[in-house]
Amino acid sequence: MDNMMQNPKVTDVLAQAFKAEGVETVFALMGDANMYWAAKMADEYGVQMIHARHEHCAAAMADGYARATGRVGVATTTCGPGFTQIMTALTIAARGNVPMVVFAGDAPIGAAWYLQQIDMAPLTLACGAHFVPVRSLDRLLDNVREAFHIAATERKPVVLSIPMDLQAQEYPYFADYTPSADLGPAPQRPVPDPVLVDRLIDMIEAAERPVIIGGRGAVRSGARAGLEALAERSGALLATSLYGKGLFDGNPYALDIAGAFASDFARERFAEADLVIGVGAGLGHYTTEGGYLYPTAQVAQIDTNPRGLWQGLRTADLHLRADAKAAADAIVARMDARGVAKTGSRTADMAAAIAADSPDGKEFPVQPNTVDPRKIILELDQIIPKDWDIVVGGGHYFSIAMTHMKGRPADKYHVINDFGAIGSGLPGAIGIAAARGDGKVALIEGDGSLLMHVQELETIQRQGIKLLINIMNDGGYGAEFHKFRARSIEAGQAIHGRGDLAAMATGFGMRAATVNAMGKTATLFQEHERANISTLWDVHTDDKIPSRAYRRVHYGEA
After folding, report:
1. How far apart are CA 518 and CA 376, in angstroms?
2. CA–CA gap between residue 93 and residue 90 (Å, rounded)
3. Number of Cβ within a 10 Å radius of residue 1
4. Residues in the chain with pLDDT < 70?
5. Can you tell me whether residue 251 is helix, strand or coil?
6. What is the pLDDT of residue 2?
7. What is the pLDDT of residue 4?
8. Of 339, 379, 469, 539, which residue is least crowded by CB atoms under 10 Å?
């Protein structure tokens, strides 16, 4: 038969379907079970293929891409050991409500035995992700559409499992693909029940010291103006969850992050609060300090999916199921209709006290050839423009970065710490940098985290990605050695010494510098801006300076 008359291979049809879904970038590590599809996506459909050096990193890059764009991120792995490597990345994406599809090549259905065979479904489900197995040609395109639909509408990672022998078959039907977006529900803003709105306003009328906490849902909803109007009418102070960081920056009554990372001054205000309104925030363990942050306050929660019990805590006394912006606007309109307006905590003295607040004012002696980690973060915050994306991984330095950086829009902060895992900041930043394409991305990461996936520095150079990498190098696992010291236990097992990370980065073809004194980064930043490649700064931080959060929680400092 003439080749022109042959039916297309399943691989061709799959590539067409992914392209029809609007996929422009795929993060990949190839093997037998995904290589033909990946090559076709790049060579025939012009999709940007970012080739990672580790499967976890490919998935974490897709996660970062999705966080930056709001679109479905796409990663691909081969079967067996290629797939098992991404369990941590899947869990992070699931807990972060990240829309992502993983094209996971699977072992051949028809083989009597296959070395790399493993049951993907229970692994996927254990991570909190959704599993869509492709097991017949009849359902092939329906399965692809289902994967993208669930990822986008339920905001979660989906594993699309496709056996390698099925991919090699001819597709016997006309490949008429309807993208998932054509079938999805139109964006909507659920409005709150008017009866519950009046109940909340009754609570506001009775309160003297209310606080509103905006979370990631409020950021996504675009609720800032509405919540600021609500706070003004109710006399409330403003704060955010960790993932809402930046939502109210610039407002004179904003306390920054609530909970575990709150400043001492903010903690006092929460202790005094008699009403807390959480909007688009889960009000979980860290945001509420295990339920002890505001011990005497009544609590209301506004969320599209409010939970009465979350992370072992009773979240609220009143729940309103609604979009953050729609709820804020409805409550403000009803307060105006009822003539409810209060001053509460909003005084000139309070604004002045908030303006003077510092996340950590304690002075420490600094060891030679190192910098105070708090002061270097402040310096970085000054030199890195406010329109840059800031990516922060997990580790001891993480609370310092998130409490000391100010004045940036909420959508410019990306915290890759939904599972408490280190090692995902670097690949997440690569995904965000690939999405932005403008070089305006800065990563703040720890040395231990970097060394888990240092091979991805080669990916950055090979793929031509521009990124500013700031490694807070304390010579060990800071989260662990500070906890050891707090208990008067020898910390040597958590200390590995400050390797020459700048030389290592140079070996991968990047620009690099060691920062062991204050005042050097402004010049270094200008040099980075003029260059067309990525830069790594090996920042030697004093390992004897614990963060305020660690001193309070682990060292017992009041």
Report:
1. 7
2. 5
3. 6
4. 1-5
5. coil
6. 47
7. 52
8. 339
Whole-prediction pTM value? 0.96
Q: What letters, b where the CB count within 10 A reaches 16 and e where it falls short, cover 348-382?
A: eeebeebeeeebbeeeeebeeebbbbbbbbbbbbe
Question: What are 333's two structure tokens?
Answer: 């309109």
Task: State the average pLDDT for the chain.
Answer: 96
Give the tokens for residue 23: 């996929």
Strand ranges across the sheet with 157-163: 48-51, 25-28, 73-77, 100-106, 157-163, 130-133
For residues 277 and 210, the answer to whether their CB atoms sit within 8 Å is yes
% residues pLDDT > 90 (the chain): 97
Q: How many C-beta atoms surround the C-beta of residue 310 within 10 A?
A: 17
Helix H, strand E, coil C: the string for 43-54 is HCCCCEEEECCC
- Using CA atoms, how far residue 224 sits from 79, 247, 324, 380, in Å, is 44, 7, 9, 26
> What b/e sequence results for 434-450 when a residue is b if at least 16 CB atoms lie within 10 Å of its CB, and e otherwise?
bbbeebbbbbbbbbbbb
Q: Are 136 and 164 in contact (CB under 8 A)?
A: no
Contact predicate 99/105, CB 8 Å: no
Query: 47-71 burial, b if ≥16 CB within 10 A, otherwise e?
Result: bebbebbbbbbbbbbbbbbbbbbeb
* Closest by Cα among 28, 36, 35, 34 to 60: 28
As given in the structure block, the two tokens for residue 255 are 């306390």
pLDDT at 199: 98
Give residue 140's identity as a one-letter amino acid code. Answer: L
Query: How many CB atoms neighbour CB 282 within 10 A?
Result: 23
pLDDT tens digits for range 63-73: 999 999 999 99
Partners of residue 103 on adjacent β-strands: 76, 160
- The amino acid occupying position 213 is I
Question: In whole angstroms, what is the distance from residue 374 CA to residue 545 CA?
Answer: 9
